[in-house]
Design brief:
single chain, alpha/beta, Rossmann fold, nine-stranded mixed sheet, globular, ATP-binding, LpxK
């Protein structure tokens, strides 16, 4: 929603609904705080990676990075997700690199593929945790999203924020992009801004592309070998992906932004030029493998999180795991 990033007449028109949203969400959170509504405490520490605003902020690469960093400390992390867009017949569902992204969701399949960590999806996060712990030993659970899911108790909260879009116009839904007021940032443990530093940053996340992978042949080519291409993206912030390609010196003759978690079919690609490369994100690629064409490429990114406080975050999680294991 473009008006979420300015204060127009639409913003003020929707303000009463934002006030209602705040009243309902605040009342519900109070019910959990005073134990009127019961919350679940997992037997191992839980780290929530979420955000205040809707839209693509970069949670998935941050989760992948966190799994890998904790592994360096000797900690086995399991990942749970609501599995947005998944069409599984039953939940909870254990997700593997070979899972059908239609059934399991694109992001959980991507996380399982990149990390080889145990992943489970379910709208009921308690069931997802119990399923993971039943099938594999986990020292810590990482919840992909769920900052506002107060039914799940957590030990560490990490917020991911798009540095360019920030908190938008500062209003709650539907007048703005926020699920909670900006003051909520004062109570979280760590704030990672995606792309650049701002006044909220504890660390900065940089997503760096290194090469392109062909969906059919699996061949890898440096991005600087491509001159012209078409690009599509079904993520929360498609312009970020297109800009990343252009920064690599690729001229994009056509771009197409799809909805986040777009369900792809081969017919959606009929209009694109088959005589030049077509680029997509790795998240999109997991849904296109079954009908991929030889001119289709995806661009995996490496995640770098920079900041003096980053090691303190990893140490804090490790200490939580040590306390729980005593």
């Amino acid at each position: 929603m473009q008006f979420w990033y300015s204060r127009s007449w639409i913003t003020w028109l929707l303000c009463p609904f934002s006030l209602l949203f705040w009243l309902i969400s605040t009342f519900r959170r109070s019910l959990f705080r005073f134990d009127v509504l019961k919350s679940y405490r997992a037997p191992v520490p839980v780290v929530v990676v979420g955000n205040l605003s809707v839209g693509g902020n970069g949670k998935t690469p941050a989760v992948i990075w966190l799994v890998e960093e904790l592994r360096k400390c000797g900690l086995n992390a399991g990942v749970i997700s609501r599995g947005y867009g998944s069409q599984a017949k039953t939940y909870p569902l254990l997700v593997t690199p070979t899972s059908d992204p239609v059934q399991a969701g694109d992001e959980p399949v991507l996380i399982a593929t990149r990390t080889q960590a145990p992943v489970c999806i379910s709208p009921n996060r308690q069931q997802a945790i119990e399923c993971l712990l039943q099938h594999t030993p986990c020292d810590v659970i990482i919840s992909d999203d769920g900052l506002q899911h107060y039914k799940l108790q957590r030990d560490v909260e990490i917020v991911i924020m798009d540095a360019q879009r920030g908190l938008g116009n500062g209003f709650l839904l539907p007048a703005g992009p926020l699920r909670e007021l900006p003051s909520r940032l004062q109570s979280v443990d760590f704030i990672i801004t995606n792309g650049a530093e701002n006044q909220y940053s504890d660390a900065v996340m940089l997503l760096k592309p290194q090469y392109a992978v062909n969906l059919v042949t699996k061949a890898q080519r440096p991005l600087n070998e491509f001159n012209h291409a078409t690009a599509i993206a079904g993520i929360g912030n498609p312009p970020r992906f297109f800009a990343m390609l252009e920064q690599q010196g690729i001229t994009l003759s056509e771009t197409q932004a799809f909805q986040d978690h777009q369900a792809f079919t081969v017919s959606l690609f009929d209009k694109f030029d088959k005589n030049q490369p077509l680029f997509m994100t790795e998240k999109d690629a997991v849904k296109c493998l079954a009908f991929a064409q030889e001119n289709w490429w995806y661009v995996p990114v490496t995640t770098e999180i920079q900041g003096n406080k980053t090691q303190q975050l990893i140490q804090k999680i490790a200490q939580k795991c040590g306390q729980k294991s005593k």
